[in-house]
Amino acid sequence: MSTYLRVLIISDSPAEVAVLLQILRDGSYDPLWERVATAPALDAALTKQAWDVVLYGETSPDFTPLAALKLLQDRSIDVPFLIIAEKSSEASALEAMRAGAHDYVRKDNLERLLPALERELREARQRRAYTQLNHRLPVYPLTTHPHATSPLQLIFILTRDGRLRYVSSASTRLLGYTPKELAETHLQTHLHPDDHQATWDTLSSLLHRPGTSATVRFRFRHKHGFWHLLEATSTSFHDDTTGAISLVLTSRDLGNSENTFPLLTNRLLHDVLTNIPSHALFLDQLQSLLRAARHKNKTLALLLVRIAHFRAVTKTLGHQWGEILLQQVIDRFRSALRKSDTLMRVDGDALVILLPPGSTAATAQLVARRILQVAERPFLVEGQTLIVRTTIGIALYPEHGTDAQTLLRRADIATEIAASEWSGYALYAAEHDPYSCERLLLVSELYDAFKRDQLVLHYQPKVHLATGRVNHVEALVRWQHPRHGLLSPEHFLPLAEQTGLLKSLSLWVLNTALHQCRAWQQQGLPLCVAINCSMQHDLQDPQFPDIVARLLQTCEVPATCLEVEITESTFAENPERAVITLNRFRDMGVKIAIDDFGIGYSSLGYLKHLPVDEIKIDKSLVLGMTKDESNAAIVRSAIDLGHDLGLHVAAEGVEDQATWELLAAFGCDFAQGFYVSRPLSAAALARWLKESASSKADLSVPLSASQKAKGHVQPVEKT
After folding, report:
1. Which residues neighbour 3 within 8 Å (Cβ) at sequence distance 6 or greater?
2. Do 477 and 534 contact (CB within 8 A), yes or no?
């Protein structure tokens, strides 16, 4: 179940917005969002409606975080304000935090965003709750509690040895000290003796890893002698002023009243129905367990339990009976747990079980089986017998994550694995995880790849089997990534599709391929080039044929030198629209091929009605045809079908001489694959063609198998 969230994003980068929204959705949020990039646009957005959070990202130098923050403060808007900062702009982010921003997250450490956001949203809820409770608890007024009036409590900047180099002005109101009185004193001189070791262990661990963060709680002595409980988000950074590693602590006061604080904590942080810890307390308790596990060098297990069809129960029987069912489920679960296990409700249909430090995968799986066992027995609600189905995902510290949000997210992914495998429970496995911060970082970097000329085209030759001649090449996009090297399309095309960059990428490929085609022609190499098209972003666009026609004219390339390839699956999505677009290509003279032919889609009935020139048999069939008679029979049938319909037939994935010879015997027209050549850069392809030409004296003789085995390939036929 997703949590509705109103998000205002200050950014002039659509790619950055896409990354942030994906992070929120991966964190089970359902964002209603708006992007603004200027002060007037921000002002208008703040007027239009209320927001739950403001994320400040990449904007022009004129619109600084301070300027954006001032607009909120001028309107007395108290919502979390988080800065997404490049490493180079940390100084600006810190300046904004001193002025009232809640936190900043570096772009190279986006895993911090969800924990930081969750913490700030929780604090915002608590501030509102404290304000309301002030009117209901006259015996214990919280007039000293700053949450109701100030979104920012305290900021400390610590040197490496723990001295306070900077203290915000909130210290006067909250702790009784002016910033000058606290400056250059050591933090530990102000802490409760029982908190010294744990606090400094956490803070010192950050000093070796700039850009990392942790949450720590400690008691700070007020100037008049009593203790304030503070919660601080601590982040290490490289201080350009001193050249050393420093710590910034964004601290919040959790109260000093011995009577009211327990009452407020119970009301705010426990589920009203079941009195088990709620989502508001979940991360705090998990952080405590993580610190204990880290300190003792032990493992920790988290189980996320999702109750299937819980929403359907509440809609059918009513919310009240849904809650009664949940209470019965929780009572059952408690009976299967030990006293050391902690049960929490984190969502409408989701519960979390935290096992104590030292818990292993085997322990977690045993608990999961117990939960499934007690959940099997029917429940009785409003006279009706209900069967509850649960799926359980397990994540382990430190194997699957070292922070609360990562463990929760990966346990959630494990529930998806359990549901898909009908196994009841599953342990998180990285190979099943389609999400990662590295993947999200790639999205942002892909946007920059266009501007930084990191995209390149490689070209794979397609050889005529009967003559060995090369007249056609397929254009294949690659990304020359600065960190990962040359990336193939499967690493970034799904990201481009998810973030709306696929259309721009398709146009770049088309434009680059046609310009290269023209360059080859000027060199006396009249090669035709094939490009891959998608249904969603190319064939679905009624303007796409016009764009292709203009580019052909601009590049002075004949339409017959261009071939567009679509997959069977792409065509099957919307055959009517595909036929309209493909007919326009046929009228222009552009050649059309169906790629990945034969992998199981039901477009054969439309094949005879399509304006298609060629089918390309999928490599999964070609690779095994010499060892699998069934594959060979399918390939041969596809070749015969294509020829019966008057089409050329090409085979992909030709990697050895035996496959080459069998395809030739079947009468296949073209072959493409590593046995012919790997995809090559434009310059390498030209050299390859020249070397192939010089290695064969008589170009009129068809290529024999023995010549092919030696790498003798005919060059393009000169005109």
Report:
1. 28, 29, 30, 347
2. no
Picking from 487, 489, 486, the residue whose alpha carbon sits closest to that of residue 497 is: 489
What residue spans of 645-699 are helical by DSSP H? 657-666, 682-694
In 3D space, the residue among 64, 53, 7 whose CA is nearest the CA of residue 30 turns out to be 7
How far is 531 from 14, CA to CA, in rounded Å? 26
Q: How far is CA 654 from each of CA 19, 366, 685, rounded to the nearest angstrom?
A: 39, 49, 18
Tokens of 72: 């909120």
Hey, is 385 helix, strand or coil?
strand
Q: What is the C-alpha radius of gyration for the chain, rounded to an integer number of angstroms?
A: 32
Q: What is the pLDDT of residues 263-298, one digit of tens each?
A: 334 434 444 445 455 454 566 678 778 888 888 889
Block residue for tokens 């305290």: 154
Helices (H), 523-565: 544-555
Rounded CA separation 384/373 (Å): 21
Helix (H, G, I), strand (E, B) or coil at 442: helix
Contact 247, 157 (CB under 8 A): yes
Tokens at 513, concatenated:
């391929």
- Cα 309 to Cα 349: distance, rounded to the nearest angstrom: 8
**Is the CB of residue 479 less than 8 Å from the CB of residue 501?**
no
Q: What is the pLDDT of residues 111-150, one digit of tens each?
A: 788 888 888 887 777 666 544 433 333 332 222 232 323 3
257: which DSSP letter?
-
- Whole-number Cα distances in Å, 719 to 527, 603, 692, 697: 11, 37, 18, 19
Answer whether 0.70 is exceeded by the pTM.
no
SS3 186: strand
* Distance in Å from the first CA to the final CA of the chain: 64
